[in-house]
Write a structure and sequence with these properties.
The chain is mostly helical. It has ten helices and four strands. Strand 1 and strand 2 (57-58) form a beta hairpin. The protein is globular, with a radius of gyration of 17 Å. This is Sugar transferase.
Length: 214
């Protein structure tokens, strides 16, 4: 490991421990909220593995904000919305998504559902700052639609995905796939602790504003 990687890992560990301590009430509150509004499902979302550094798979921890087996629920009960979901890059607005639990819109807007990812950082699967943690199927399907993104993807996947990152503070869900991967590749190429700190400082304002959340 070079000096940048060592320094970044120290920041990750210190930041993750600090995040768990600082947001401990929200972590406990988030787990209690899930069990109160949806007692029959797990606390954490049962989602496919994400793509980690050098395409290594890992399970990203998120509080569950949907009904159990949300995809099948949408597909079997709301065929028109399911079609829209598939055509819109696996997205539905919070106002129209019938899978969301009571209160999930606020939980997502404030990124409380993402807070368990501090534990992903502690075990080394993620970093505080890094690219988006893509799904494997998401990459495969998006590259069919946008083959021009391939030129940026290898660079983006050379580093650990992050809780926050350049694309996250540049619009989140408002940023299209090609621009998102391009931003991730730009970040991965910089390898700058100062750049990481600037992104960390910008993140609270993005979270509070809810810009790009869905």
């Amino acid at each position: 490991m070079n000096l940048y990687e060592v320094t970044k890992r120290i920041i990750d560990v210190v930041g993750a421990i600090g995040g768990v301590i600082l947001f401990f009430p929200l972590l406990i509150g988030g787990a209690i909220w899930v069990k109160l509004v949806s007692p029959n499902g797990p606390v954490f979302a049962d989602i496919p593995d994400r793509v980690g550094k050098n395409k290594k798979p890992f399970r990203m921890l998120k509080f569950r904000s949907m009904v159990p087996n949300g995809y099948e629920y949408l597909k079997n009960n709301y065929p028109e919305l399911h079609k829209k979901y598939m055509e819109n890059n696996y997205k539905l607005s919070a106002e129209e998504d019938p899978r969301l639990l009571k209160g999930a819109k606020i939980i997502r807007k404030l990124s409380i559902d993402e807070m368990p990812q501090f534990f992903n950082v502690l075990v080394g699967d993620m970093s505080i700052v890094g690219p988006r943690a893509y799904y494997f199927f998401e990459i495969d399907e998006q590259l069919v639609k946008y083959p021009e993104a391939a030129q940026y993807l290898d660079g983006a996947l050379r580093v650990k995905p992050g809780i926050t990152g350049l694309w996250q503070v540049s619009g989140r869900s408002e940023v299209g796939f090609v621009d998102r991967v391009k931003l991730d590749a730009i970040y991965a190429g910089k390898k700058s602790i100062l750049f990481d700190l600037l992104i960390i400082l910008k993140t609270p304002f993005v979270v509070i504003s809810g810009k790009g959340a869905f």
